[in-house]
Amino acid sequence: MKFNTKTIHGGQENVDPAYGSVMPPIYQTTTYSQSTPGGHKGFEYSRSGNPTRANLEKSLASLENGNFGLAFGSGLAAIDAVLKLFKPGDEIISTNDLYGGSYRLFTRIFEGLGIKFHFVGMQDAEGIEEYINENTKLIWVETPTNPMMNIIDIAEVSKIAKKHDLLLAVDNTFATPYLQQPLGLGADIIMHSATKYLGGHSDVVMGGLVVNDKELADKLYFIQNASGAICGPQDSFLVLRGIKTLHIRMQRHCENGAAVAKFLRSNPKVDKVYWPGFEDHPNHDIARKQMSGFGGMISFTTKANTLESATKIVEKLKIFTLAESLGGVESLAGHPASMTHASIPKVDREKTGVVDSLIRLSVGIEDEEDLIADLSQAIG
Ligand SMILES: *Cc1c(COP(=O)(O)O)cnc(C)c1O
């Protein structure tokens, strides 16, 4: 099956053996009758497994070309499950420019439990090796990074991970499996905030993991059930529904993203524009190699370069909504320093480029002319 067919049919054989409904039924149930103790039809209790969630988990695995999918109540719940694979004394090397909530989970929860993190700029993969020692267990990669749109060479990082017998996890939220499939590049674990492009309609918070290795899948399944951060059947249905149009939404996100990035670059009041599709983006060649398109996420700064200038722009926008989150059909604008990345200390933030004037756009699938006119009037 090719990708566009998978979004609609992947892992969805026989979704409703009872009546043949085309969409998977929403099994709004906590428990399942047994004919004799242990005599059930594959489901016992909905924390351990639910048929609607199972449909979604199979769909996620299919999209990422993986063997096993697991769905969680949020992206962070999915990351939390991955981190519970490790024990005090273990060390993790993470991308330094990453989603603020991931950073908060790493430093405010898991560091306190004895796991050590190294936050490393990975645009040059070789730099990772100096942080590896006998306690290192995992490399955590986010690419493109949020919000600076850096690109990390997954295949190169994977070579380093394999050489030192480490797991490699990739947060594939920004790219989605439509643009980038990290398992094929050597990753062991794919993580998604399905809240974003997979759901695609800004109406559900959800997370997912995909892995190939059975033993790793079993460990993660144990954690999913034992810790219990699962998603409900209604939300599973919504994400399954969202996934059915992932390919056409992503195509439009990419087209509109390119148009908006080029417009911003041509605007005399705009200073830097961060978008991996530009040929002079430092890792444009890697983006070209590992992604099939450049997506709809763009960050930029203005020449005025003040908090006030950025605030004025985001307040003036009419079609772009000032809001956290990304990846929905509607265009959103965010101010990372005060919103998504406020949990990262200012000095650390600014080291990676998250200055006070930075604005991040999630370019939606509206008409490109309307989006550009809106930005034009707001930037002034
Ligand atoms: C939103 C996001 C997360 C966290 O996911 P939630 O669903 O909000 O818990 C993790 N990584 C990235 C890149 C994100 O954008």
From TrEMBL:
Chain positions found as N6-(pyridoxal phosphate)lysine: 196
What's a GO cellular component annotated to this UniProt protein?
cytoplasm
Keywords attached to this Swiss-Prot or TrEMBL record, sorted alphabetically, are:
Lyase, Pyridoxal phosphate
List this protein's GO terms for biological process: cysteine biosynthetic process via cystathionine; transsulfuration
Checking SUPFAM superfamilies in the record gives: PLP-dependent transferases
Q: What is its EC number?
A: 4.4.1.8
Enzyme class, top EC level, equals lyase
Q: Name one GO molecular function term.
A: pyridoxal phosphate binding
Q: Which cofactor does it need?
A: pyridoxal 5'-phosphate
Q: Where are the transmembrane segments?
A: none
Q: Which CDD domains match?
A: CGS_like
What the entry lists under NCBIfam families is as follows: PRK07811.1
Regarding protein family, the annotation reads:
Belongs to the trans-sulfuration enzymes family.
Entries under PANTHER family matching the protein:
CYSTATHIONINE GAMMA-LYASE (PTHR11808:SF15), TRANS-SULFURATION ENZYME FAMILY MEMBER (PTHR11808)
Spell out the protein name for this chain. Answer: Cys/Met metabolism pyridoxal-phosphate-dependent enzyme
Q: Which organism is it from?
A: Christiangramia forsetii (strain DSM 17595 / CGMCC 1.15422 / KT0803) (Gramella forsetii)
- What are the leading ranks of the lineage? Bacteria, Pseudomonadati, Bacteroidota, Flavobacteriia, Flavobacteriales
Instruction: State the encoding gene.
Output: metC
